Amino acid sequence: MEKEKFNWNTIESDPGVFNEMVKNLGCDDIQFKEIFSFDDSATFERIKPIKGFILLFEYNKQTINYIRNEYSFIETNEYPDIFFAEQVVQNACATQAILSTLMNIPNINLGPTLQQFKNQTLPLSPHERGLAIGNNEIIRKAHNDFAQPSEALENKISEKLKGVEGRAYHFISIIPYNGILLLLDGLSEGPIIIGGADENWPITGMKPFFEGLINAMQGSLEFTLLAVVQDQIKKYQELYENALAEKKEYQIELYKDIIDEEKKIKEQQHKENKRRKHDYMPLALNLILFLGKRQKLEQEIEKQINEITKK
């Protein structure tokens, strides 16, 4: 039981999960938006400025070699104001990538919990910061609140299956810093310079890196790319109020529509998060037992297989 108390469970790479998690930690200035293409100029125009990216991808020999062979590390002691933490806790890479991004965004309201954590850990070494993340009960609880309820059971099973070959996926963060573009990966030796960071860095810096990584993944589309942006309701509410004051009718209608759309997105994400937190395992087990007792389980399984085959 003592060991389970400090477990970090895996969570989904979903913008709704990340949005609600950082809000629960007290930071409501930031929002995560999923990016499907760097050629979608309308989306980039709407959500700008982008503060950083969080990327989930397959972590294998090809992708590791691409990053290490193409780019170079920097010494953290040369940049003491960069928040970089080693990942010392299993399954914490999603939250670690979030923290690595938030802690390095200038002039945002982190909220009291994260601001205090930053103040306390910035003087520490990257290894000590990683330990501090793992030992922080508030952050761990916020993370585990979005693990599926049966995750503990899955973790016990995975312990039994250690050594079985499978795919590994990993979160990293990418941030602009003083004219350079940095990749922050808790499994690396330190921050990695992957390009320059001009005003159009998501296209001039991030896009080439991302395309190279996809090539290293041999065209695999198993990734999630999230842009870290200003909370869109707050952003467009301010623009809406300015448009009202200046009586700009077209902008008033445009900003109002965007605000309404963003509110609907957040409402839907909240509903989905409630479903994620619900434990459907007892229902599933009871349904299986019910069908088994009535000797209908094999029939139902065969029916479902036929349905899947038709598709």
Evaluate the radius of gyration.
Answer: 22 Å
Give the proportion of residues in helices.
Answer: 40-55%
Mean residue pLDDT: 85
Strand order of the largest sheet: 1-7-2-4-5-6-3
Q: Report strand %.
A: 5-15%
- How many β-strand runs? 7
So what's the CATH class of the largest domain? Alpha Beta
Count up the domains.
3
Order of helices and strands: HHEHEHEHHHHHEEEHEHHHH
Instruction: Give the helix tally.
Output: 14
The CATH topology of the largest domain is Ubiquitin C-terminal Hydrolase UCH-l3
How is the biggest beta sheet arranged? 7 strands, antiparallel
For the record, give the distance between the C-alpha atoms at the N and C termini, rounded to a whole number. 44 Å
Q: Which blocks of ≥5 consecutive residues have pLDDT under 50?
A: 1-5, 155-165
Which class best fits the helix and strand makeup?
alpha+beta
CATH architectural group of the largest domain: 3-Layer(aba) Sandwich
Could you walk me through the main structural features you see in this protein, from its secondary elements to its overall organization?
It is a single chain. Strands 1-7-2-4-5-6-3 form a 7-stranded antiparallel β-sheet, sandwiched between helices. It is α+β, with helices and mostly antiparallel strands and 311 residues long. The protein is built from 14 helices and 7 strands. The radius of gyration is 22 Å and the shape is globular. Mean pLDDT is 85; it is low at 1-5 and 155-165.
